[in-house]
Amino acid sequence: MSPPRTLALLPLVLLLAGCSHNPFDPGPNLKSDAEDFEKSLRFQDYAGAAQLVVPARRQAFLAARRKEGNDLEVTDMEVIDVQMSPDGKQAVVVSRMRWVRLPSVSESTAEVHAAWVLSAGGWQVLALAGGPFPELAPPH
Questions:
Q1: What is the rounded distance in angstroms from the CA atom of residue 43 to the CA atom of residue 53?
Q2: If you average pLDDT over residues 42-46, what whole number do you get?
Q3: What are phi and psi of 61, to 5 degrees?
Q4: Could you give phi then psi for residue 134, rounded to 5 degrees?
Q5: Are 108 and 132 in contact (CB under 8 A)?
Q6: Full-model pTM
Q7: Cis peptide before 55 (omega within 30 of 0)
Q8: pLDDT tens digits, one per residue of 66-98
Q9: CA–CA gap between residue 133 and residue 127 (Å, rounded)
């Protein structure tokens, strides 16, 4: 195919590629947001992690982190499963989390269920069930 003809087909290919998505697929954003949240927790970047927490719970999360200081060290997080709601606007990311709360040298392990919601700004953590962040526990 000659270059001018290839260039003429480029807009059509881009249009078709853009229309070939599943409307219920969270796309890479949920995965990357969940990975960013976990990475921020692991490296004690709580301000970064807080940006991925819903605004209504963000201040409580940051206050708990300030009170705790650097006593909490998340040593590992591994995503086990992702469960998407039928409407594609909510998800539960199930992870295995390991952490040490100093001065203890014992490592704790728990399965953590992170409830995520899709907002105008992207995916945000609504609640964490399990793990060392009680201020993000689901309301009872």
A1: 17
A2: 95
A3: -65, -50
A4: -60, -25
A5: yes
A6: 0.77
A7: no
A8: 998 889 999 999 999 999 999 999 999 999 999
A9: 10
d(CA 63, CA 57): 10
The model's pLDDT over 10-20, given as tens digits with 9 standing for 90+, comes to 333 333 333 33
Beta-bridged to residue 97, according to DSSP, are 77, 110
Average pLDDT in the 1-22 region?
Answer: 39
* Amino acid in the structure at residue 71: D
Share of the chain above pLDDT 90, in %: 71
Whole-angstrom CA distances from 126 to 36, 103, 123 are 15, 30, 9
Angstrom distances, CA of residue 138 to CA of 32, 69, 100, 125, 129: 23, 23, 22, 11, 6
Q: Which tokens sit at 90?
A: 């909510």
CA angle, residues 102, 125, 133, in degrees to nearest 5: 20
Q: What number of residues does the chain have?
A: 140
Could you tell me whether strands 107-119 and 72-84 are parallel, antiparallel, or unpaired per DSSP bridges?
unpaired
User: Domains along the chain?
Assistant: 28-136 (3.10.450.50)
Query: What values do phi and psi take at 21, rounded to 5?
Result: -105, 160
d(CA 123, CA 138): 17
